[in-house]
Amino acid sequence: GIKRNLAISWLNHATGVLIGIFLMPYVLGVLGDETYGTWVLINSFLGYSCFLYLGFGETVARFVARYHARQQWDRLNQVVNLVLFAYVAMGLLALLIAAVVAWFVPSLRDWSPLAAGEIQIVVLLMGLTLCLALSTTVFGGVLAGIQRFDIEQGFVLISGIARLVLTVWLLRREYGLLTLAAIFLVVTVVEHAGHVVFAFRCVPQLRIGWRHIDRGTAREFLSFSGFEFLKMVSNQVLEVTDTVIIGLLMGPAATVPYYLAMRMVRFIKTPIQLIGRVFMPRAGQLQALQQHERLRQLFALGTGGAFLLATGVFVGATFFGQQLIRAWVGEGYDAAYVVLVILLGAQIVAAPADVVRSLLFGAGLVRVPALLNVAKAVANIALSLILIRRFGIYGVAFGTLIPVVAIELTALVPYALRRLQIGPRFVLTELLAPQMLPLATLFAYCKLLDAAGIVAPRWPDLLLTAGCGGGLLVCVRVVIDPRFLASERWQSVRRLLARSVPAGAARPPTP
Do 279 and 407 touch, CB atoms closer than 8 A? Predict the structure, then answer.
């Protein structure tokens, strides 16, 4: 069900966060700023591989789910084979591009203290990894389409743990970048091989062959995936362009503090994006049934929750972000704190907007949100190139913040409200107002701890502070929710408390 899939996805994300918290400073400490910055730069370029995925990711899961439920095995095989052969071609193209880039590596810049030959091999290994991943990605989509997130996410979880163990075991030997690239290759092969095996086990009717390619299915599939491709490409540009610009204009070492902050923001964004992914099919169902009131409630629940989480993290990071960075990677990265605050400020708008996009996508409204995402990506690149010359990495962070606030608030939100038939009053009373008291309580809590100076840059202090703050935020939000106060669960608690009061003792007044 939806709850199980969301829980498994969140568990996998939480494990990935814990691995990243440990692994990133470990790798940084072993390799040093210059070598690690080169690794970040290479991976930033690989981030543009989203162009090769063609927007098929979410689309293949959607079509597989439909045809599997209807037991239309011919149509299911047509979709899977179409995507498989397209991805094999894109994988070979990725390997060719990697070979060309590797050829020109020595002429791009001075790579010292690393040897250009080592970087060439790393680029080829990463290209091979991408080729193999692309060629078998469709089988992960099959597992997602039949709602077997436990298997699909299980292999992702296993690969993350394996990557951690192998990195700790092997990285301190020679050729650090080559070791990292080889680990990524081996783990990727194992993960995707698992997806292939279990896709055939879970769908015995699955067949591979040219005879399953059908033009009619291809036209239907491509018409839906086109705008998904635009959205995915622009999202990926927003993710990786900042570090590429910094690395090329300021050098690889300058990417490190920015990348530290960006990694923290990604840890926060992912669970919120998972909310949107789960809400998307539900929005489509409500739209099809013309249940506009329930769709508005879904809008308030999803966007309100995203706003609460993003703003709560922003408040916490504003007070204790410096301690977090020092506990994570040590001293010397104070610039990462400023970047972190700026990027988290952008998430106050971007996180709810991502949920809005998912709801619109589920309702079949894909064109305008996708085009607005493209405009946001273009504005991000332009502003980052302009502002980096005067403000350095802070300018790049503002180049991300400004388009998010301007485009989402002035274009996407009004469009969504109009198409979903939601008025401004509903946004204020149902979406924003319920979050104010929990956020004010969290702010007071953080202010009190900050004034007392009792939160040191140590993991036990930070985890305890974050746990108590998050618990306080959630508890206040739940308690003030009218649905909770009227629920049978709360009434049962009240009856239990009433029975626990001795006879003759004063009972609490009934609200």
Answer: no
Q: Which residue has the tokens 């929990």?
A: 438
* 173: DSSP letter: S
Query: What 3-state class would DSSP assign to 182?
Result: helix
Cα–Cα dist 199/327, whole Å: 42
> In this structure, is the dihedral angle defined by the CA atoms of residues 109, 113, 117 and 122, taken in order, positive or negative?
negative
How far is C-alpha 421 from the geometric centre of its chain's CA atoms?
A: 28
Rg, C-alpha atoms of the chain: 24
Whether the Cβ atoms of residue 358 and residue 232 lie closer than 8 Å to each other: no
pLDDT digits (tens, 9 = 90+) for 244-264: 899 889 988 888 899 889 988
| Alpha carbons 432 and 422: distance in angstroms, whole number | 14
Give the start-to-end residue ranges of the domains of the chain. 1-213, 245-496
State how far the Cα of 505 lies from the Cα of 496, in Å rounded to an integer: 15
Contact between 409 and 417 (Cβ < 8 Å): no
Give the integer Cα–Cα distance in Å for 242 and 246: 6
Q: For residue 35, which of 165, 171, 131, 143 has the smallest C-alpha distance? A: 171
Q: Which residues contact 143 (CB under 8 A, 6 or more apart)?
A: 149, 151, 152, 195, 198, 199, 202
Helix 33-46, helix 255-288: angle, nearest 10: 30
Three-state secondary-structure class, residue 55: coil
* Residue appearing with tokens 């599939």: 221
Over residues 160-212, the pLDDT tens digits come to 889 888 888 887 666 678 888 889 899 999 999 999 999 999 999 998 988 88
Helix or strand or coil: residue 204? coil
Nearest to 357 by CA among 219, 482, 238: 238
